[in-house]
């Protein structure tokens, strides 16, 4: 699963992406559309639980979970009608699983805002409107086709018509589809359309270096709006994070301390993006490696085993599971077994975030 970083031009999108992925692209000019094809990057998800596990279990290496990010070129008003290569940009958003919208919460006369003023709620409204208009176009096209099929008595087509009409009515009230609360049975009829406003959103407030705690009025506006639409918010200073990302570990710690941060804000952002995608981690721990594995929330033990290798899922017998609290309290897996804290779970077990596992299988 992957998240797409979107935003209006000149809000700090590519600066943030480069900092997250520690990649240094060519200097881009200060004007819209400097990124035409989406860049992709893999970002580690910092997880302090890995340090706790490796402090009790001697291992050769520690491997965090990863997050795939796509840097999508800036959207402008009229994108749904093709403005500014809009159709191409919208198609890139259609392919990701969640949206990270960067909104500008800083003033800088040297960085021109495409709208001529800095107002994060205007930025959010422009992009949300373009995504809703694109969804309306998609659904109207789908409705015509479904209605023709439904006339023949096709039950699935009739159900599709009902769901599409329900979605169009909601969009007609200027509300994104993620706020409609569709049932799983309804979602399956429109799954193939790649609807943009169904995707979960995380708002990334890009702040100035004098507002690293995100206490400014512009950030608060974003928080208030996000609370209304049940979305997450993370504040970062993309410019500072880009500088921090270039430093070695010792200098990085020194800079973080000098600005009053305990960790890079990008670490918080990576974890929030992971959660927005509906993902969680479980761990395997041994002499060769302590590793975080990514599964969707609600994944069963066999599905989690299959992330390691398809044979593990195909031949799944059982999982042996213990918790981080057990390890911290008892100090070793041997002591956990002795204390009877090692749980044996079967095929129906739903994985919990932070489970530490061994899988037994036979193929």
Give the SSE layout:
Blueprint: E1 2-6, H1 13-21, E2 39-45, H2 48-56, E3 61-63, E4 65-71, H3 86-94, E5 98-105, H4 120-150, H5 155-172, H6 184-190, E6 201-207, H7 217-228, E7 232-236, H8 238-245, H9 249-259, H10 265-276, E8 279-285, E9 289-296, H11 301-308, H12 310-314, E10 316-322, H13 324-330, H14 333-338, E11 343-345, E12 356-361
Parallel strand pairs: 1-4, 1-5, 3-9, 5-6, 6-7
Antiparallel strand pairs: 2-4, 8-9, 10-11, 10-12
Helix pairs in contact: 1-8, 4-5, 5-6
Summarize the structure.
This protein has 363 residues and is of the alpha/beta class.
The tally of helices reads: 14
Biggest β-sheet: count, sense, barrel?
Answer: 6 strands, mixed
> How do the helices and strands follow one another from N- to C-terminus?
EHEHEEHEHHHEHEHHHEEHHEHHEE
Could you tell me how far the N terminus lies from the C terminus, measured between alpha carbons in angstroms? 28 Å
Count all strands and give the number. 12
Proportion in helices: 40-55%
Strand order of the largest sheet: 2-4-1-5-6-7
Mean pLDDT across the residues is 86
Beta-strand percentage range: 15-25%
Low-confidence stretches: 23-36
Structural class designation = alpha/beta
Q: Cα-atom Rg, whole angstroms?
A: 23 Å
Task: Indicate the overall shape.
Answer: flat
């Amino acid at each position: 699963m992957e998240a797409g970083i979107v935003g209006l031009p000149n809000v700090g999108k590519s600066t943030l992406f480069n900092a997250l992925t520690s990649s240094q692209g060519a200097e881009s000019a200060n004007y819209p559309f400097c990124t035409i094809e989406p860049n992709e990057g893999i970002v580690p998800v910092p997880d302090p639980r890995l340090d706790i596990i490796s402090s009790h279990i001697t291992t050769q290496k520690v491997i965090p979970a990863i997050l795939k990010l796509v840097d999508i070129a800036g959207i402008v008003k009229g994108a749904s009608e093709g403005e500014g290569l809009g159709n191409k940009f919208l198609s890139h958003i259609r392919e990701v699983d969640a949206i990270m919208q960067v909104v500008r919460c800083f003033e800088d006369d040297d960085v021109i805002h495409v709208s001529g003023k800095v107002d994060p709620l205007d930025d959010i409204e422009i992009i949300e409107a373009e995504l809703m208009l694109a969804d309306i176009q998609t659904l109207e096209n789908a409705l015509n086709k479904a209605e023709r099929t439904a006339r023949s008595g096709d039950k699935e087509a009739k159900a599709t018509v009902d769901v599409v009409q329900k979605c169009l009515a909601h969009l007609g009230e200027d509300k994104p589809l993620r706020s409609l609360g569709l049932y799983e049975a309804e979602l399956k009829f429109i799954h193939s359309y790649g609807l943009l406003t169904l995707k979960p959103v995380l708002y990334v407030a890009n702040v100035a270096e004098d507002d690293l705690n995100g206490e400014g009025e512009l950030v608060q506006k974003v928080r208030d709006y996000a609370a209304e639409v049940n979305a997450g918010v993370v504040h970062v200073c993309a410019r500072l994070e880009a500088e921090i990302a270039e430093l070695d570990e010792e200098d990085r710690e020194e800079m973080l301390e000098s600005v009053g941060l305990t960790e890079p804000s990008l670490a918080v952002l990576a974890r929030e993006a992971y959660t927005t995608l509906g993902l969680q981690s479980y761990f395997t721990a041994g002499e060769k490696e302590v590793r975080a594995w990514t599964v969707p929330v609600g994944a069963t033990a066999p599905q989690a085993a299959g992330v390691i290798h398809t044979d593990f899922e195909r031949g799944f017998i059982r999982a042996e599971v213990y918790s981080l609290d057990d390890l911290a309290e008892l100090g070793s897996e041997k002591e956990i077994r002795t204390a009877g804290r090692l749980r044996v779970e079967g095929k129906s077990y739903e994985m919990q975030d932070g489970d530490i596992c061994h899988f037994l299988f036979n193929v």
